[in-house]
Amino acid sequence: NKRRRSSESEPEEESSSEEEEKEEQKQETEKSSTSDLNAAEKPEEGMKKPVADQQAVPTAPVCQTASNKPSCKPVIFVPVDRSPEIQEARLKLPILAEEQVIMEAINENPIVVICGETGSGKTTQVPQFLYEAGYTSSNGIIGITEPRRVAAVSMSQRVAKEMNLSHRVVSYQIRYEGNVTDETQIKFMTDGVLLKEIQKDFLLSKYKVVIIDEAHERSMYTDILIGLLSRIVPLREKVRMPLKLIVMSATLRVEDFTENNRLFSVTPPVIQVSFLSLGSVPDDTLICPFGAEIFQILFFLWGLSGILVFLTGQAEVHSLCRRLRKAFPFQKNNSAEESVEEIRKFKKSRKRKKTTALPQIDLDNYSVVPVDEGDEDRDAETDDDIAGSDVDLDLGDGDSEEDEKPDSSLPLYVLPLYSLLAPEKQAKVFRPPPPGTRLCVVATNVAETSLTIPGIKYVVDCGKVKKRFYDKITGVSSFRVTWISQASANQRAGRAGRTEPGHCYRLYSSAVFMDFEKFSAPEITNRPVEDLILQMKALNIEKVINFPFPTPPPAEALAAAEELLIALGALKEPPLTGRLKEQQAAKLSCPISPLGRVMATFPVAPRYAKMLALSKQHDCLPYTITIVSAMTVRELFEEFDRPAVSEEETAKLKGKKARLLQIQKIWAGQGALQKLGDLMVMLGAVGACEYAGCTPKFCEENGLRYKAMLEVRRLRGQLTTAVNSACADTGLYVDPKMKPPTEAQATYLRQIVLAGLGDHLARRVQAEELLDEKWKNAYKTALLDDPVFIHPSSVLFKQLPEFVVYQEIVETTKLYMRGVSAVEPEWIPALLPPYCHFGKPLENPPPSYCPETGRIRCHRPSVFYRVSWQLPAVEVD
Ligand code: CDP
Ligand code: MG
């Protein structure tokens, strides 16, 4: 039989006719692949093969197993040349003890779940096991997805180092960059990158193994990848190019994957990797306010062991870092004794300056918990730290009362860690601290699961996290500091002491802990999903509602996403016939439109993708690309409204802020350009920065974030490539410096922005409509009942144009619009027909169903009643 299964490790032996056959089959399968997803409530037949059957056709070299199962192939062992130190360190990792069990399971099953606490070696070791067992070859590589870019980059570097291989072989790919080559055999990437690859090649044929790492984080793309892979794995089986799927989780809560019979028909084996229990420490109780507490803890921890402090956001991290550096001065030439002396002095000076601290967190005490406390169910927050949001956690300026404690503190080597930090600064935490100092990392949630910092013995956990919350329907986001989940707290505690007993200091009582949610919700359940839905439609998954999500997103979020995509023209609108219910059902399974296909090729949110798709007109593309890049990269400008530690610093921040406001006015341009508002400021900032060569110095002087500007540059390049390949005749190239747009172009740009951000239209409440004081200077939007305002940082804050579109609404003290541009009312009917009533305004619009248009959501006529019929100024198609 020519069609025998050939071993994965011997691809060279395959005859060419077999290759061709495979290719044919692959194409066939690709055609049918997404119809499976559309139909499939149930997993398809091919998947229901009993396990024994699968064992008979091993897809990889099988190790001689403990149970002495006859292996079909001799063990293939690809040698790896590791240094003795690396080898020694590896052998200490718990996962090494499980190598054989793991490899047997992988050899014998298409899908395997591996659970092991953070630091047990999953991310760094499993790819090595596979490599050594011959899973990579010229026609297939190992892919590993990470929810965070930081992890994808640093893990690829770590594994390359451990295996003594070059970055050409162990590589990474994240949205803006990568070092993948033809030689790449192990590829770390973000989950979004793999999702894009599925769009180009549904069968992921270049991979032999796909590892979904950090599955417990339940990031939206990870969830969707698992759903897609649950279908891709059996399809690959069908075309006789088996693919192995490995799902790795830091917690044992994997039943959403394993017990979900919509996902996998055969329950995949779950392998658990556990640490040996270390000794525990007795409880200890201290009472003092937050902030001061951290000092107190640090003062009486001794030894050289590292300390990891969890705070909520970037501003808090910086603030504490500065205060710690003052309190535990570290200079290169300081001897330990000198430092201790300085600490004494500092403590004395602090004692004199006694102030009453008003901590923001309502904590009365905290408990010290031994690290290896029973509960194995660990999970993590899915949210990363968020820089510069308006919620700030005041660290207080509390005093410490620790003077009786033994003082053996060494100078601290204090390092911040958060996701917006420049990569080279992030990498510092992995290096040993200078001799005679102790490492103290002050981190946001980013250190919770993705990264393991070596040598940490003490963890200080504030118990809170700064999270972005979205309204399910309107997408309005707000930042809130909330308590973490119990799983998250345990995860944080678990970051301490893997090689010796560790301690976790929780700045909250066990009573507070008991009130925590057990787990945090998967990301897909609490954010807008329109980008995801567009990607899925581009994969021809029309009935999104039937997709095997590990946890399905809420129905209202799905409906809102479909409706937005219909309004943007990305989906083909269903005919408005039949009953309301039928219409609604039709709306939930619209196919993608040609415009939608173009939009799906751009790696940006659908609203921005629409803007790009329209911008070929009037040579607007380079500007739209820049605006979209700037809007996609969050936090272009430095945040100067952060709490300062001293008066001197307050003055400095004030000066910098004034300078930024001044220069933003210049970037906002003159005449018609000004109406483009904050988007013109973005254009001006990017142009000016590139003109100056995009140096850290220029950014520092002008209130720009250097890292953000580099990302804008990268994204501009990438979007230009995407635009060129979507519309072959554009022949666009990036001119970084870019001339300012002409007045006419600025006007077209405003229309383009209106067409893309249409549902983000707002109209100022007129004097005669003022309901009460709270509506003064307020805007009405189509999505919200409450007044919204232009953000004070906007250049249009004082001008108050009648109609504006906004990038986003954030909720702080009020609902604020950010990224605001002025639009002209006469454009609205032409560019946003789905959002207008072409008729007399209704006196009392029904709340959710409009009989005039048959549309499900009725837009408040009061917002639009002045819209008149005039000739369109730009054509949408
Ligand atoms: O994925 P998992 O959390 O199970 O563990 P890992 O990331 O593979 O880390 C295994 C070990 O490698 C940990 O003890 C880390 O401290 C160490 N490691 C390191 O020293 N430097 C890195 N850049 C990454 C990991
Ligand atoms: Mg890991």
TrEMBL record:
Helicase ATP-binding domain residues are 103-270
- Enumerate the spans annotated as Helicase C-terminal domain: 293-540
Location of region: Disordered: 1-68, 370-409
Query: According to its record, what are the GO cellular component terms?
Result: cytoplasm; nuclear membrane; small-subunit processome
Name any one GO molecular function.
Answer: U3 snoRNA binding
* UniProt entry tagged with the keyword Hydrolase: yes
Q: Which GO terms describe its biological process?
A: brain development; maturation of SSU-rRNA from tricistronic rRNA transcript (SSU-rRNA, 5.8S rRNA, LSU-rRNA); positive regulation of male gonad development; ribosome assembly
Q: Which UniProt keywords apply?
A: ATP-binding, Helicase, Hydrolase, Nucleotide-binding
Q: Which residue intervals are annotated with compositional bias (Basic and acidic residues) in the record?
A: 23-51
- Renumbered to this chain, the Acidic residues biased-composition regions fall at 9-22, 372-405
> What name goes with this protein?
DEAH-box helicase 37
Organism annotation: Anser brachyrhynchus
